[in-house]
């Protein structure tokens, strides 16, 4: 049963990259199906309006609930997970990507402006799994880029999508901490040599060096991921 993904957005063209590379191959192989829906197709006024001023005042505009209800109803099933990208959401992570990779149906609601009327989340929450997710502590212009990131991080974990599942084993955020640095040919580049141990053929020494490098890198870049932190 392929993972089905429906993306609802006012900028369908943002998702053209999903036809390329690994994401494109995953769809061609039938492991994943991805459909992009223009929210404006679900409006009923001649201006195809999708936003209005916020109740309670404040800057910016809020996306009105009606088009969202129509659009989500057009694709939702009782197996759906509705994902709303928002800086106010729970933090998306590799474990969350792994959960989503094993879902049946994901619906991404890409908000813009000041976001989507909260009643959309409130309406679907008692009916299906609803997740407000953030890809980091910063604010984007909308949920589209966050959706692209979450789709790519999740789809690559769908069994069969990556040619060599081994490459999932040692990557950052799969193991505790971040991954060791990688090197390839040439052995010397602009006076910089590849660490000698990597050319030694001693697999135990290479494994030990990589574990040490992972700890050094994690300590420097992401001490919050160190065991016990
Ligand atoms: N940080 C985020 O995930 C986000 C989503 C929309 N704007 O920011």
From TrEMBL:
Compartments, record wording: Cytoplasm
Binding site for S-adenosyl-L-methionine: 111, 135-140
Record field: catalytic activity: guanosine(37) in tRNA + S-adenosyl-L-methionine = N(1)-methylguanosine(37) in tRNA + S-adenosyl-L-homocysteine + H(+)
Listed name of the protein: tRNA (guanine-N(1)-)-methyltransferase
InterPro entries: Alpha/beta_knot_MTases (IPR029028), tRNA_m1G_MeTrfase_C_sf (IPR023148), tRNA_m1G_MeTrfase_TrmD (IPR002649), tRNA_m1G_MTases_N (IPR029026), tRNA_MeTrfase_TRMD/TRM10 (IPR016009)
Keyword Lyase applies: no
Alphabetized NCBIfam families for the sequence: PRK00026.1, trmD
Principal location listed in the UniProt entry: cytoplasm
EC number in record: 2.1.1.228
Known partners and oligomeric status: Homodimer.
């Amino acid at each position: 049963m392929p993972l089905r993904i429906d993306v609802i957005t006012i900028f369908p063209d943002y998702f053209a990259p999903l036809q390329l590379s690994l994401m494109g191959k995953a769809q061609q192989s039938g492991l994943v199906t991805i459909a992009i829906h223009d929210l404006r197709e679900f409006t009923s006024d001649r201006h195809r309006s999708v936003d209005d001023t916020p109740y309670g005042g404040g800057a910016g505009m809020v996306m009105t609930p009606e088009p969202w209800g129509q659009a989500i109803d057009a694709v939702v099933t009782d197996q759906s997970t509705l994902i709303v990208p928002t800086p106010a959401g729970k933090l998306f992570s590799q474990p969350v990507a792994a959960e989503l990779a094993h879902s049946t149906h994901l619906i991404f609601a890409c908000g813009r402006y000041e976001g989507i009327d909260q009643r959309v989340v409130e309406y679907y929450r008692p009916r299906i799994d609803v997740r407000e997710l953030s890809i980091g502590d910063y604010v984007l212009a909308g949920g589209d880029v966050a959706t692209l990131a979450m789709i790519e991080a999740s789809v690559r974990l769908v069994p069969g999508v990556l040619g060599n599942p081994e490459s999932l084993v040692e990557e950052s955020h799969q193991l505790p901490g971040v991954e060791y640095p990688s090197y390839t040919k040439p052995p010397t580049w602009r006076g910089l040599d590849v660490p000698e141990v990597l050319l030694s053929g001693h697999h135990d020494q290479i494994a030990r060096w990589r574990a040490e490098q992972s700890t050094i890198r994690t300590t420097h870049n992401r001490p919050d991921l160190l065991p016990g932190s």
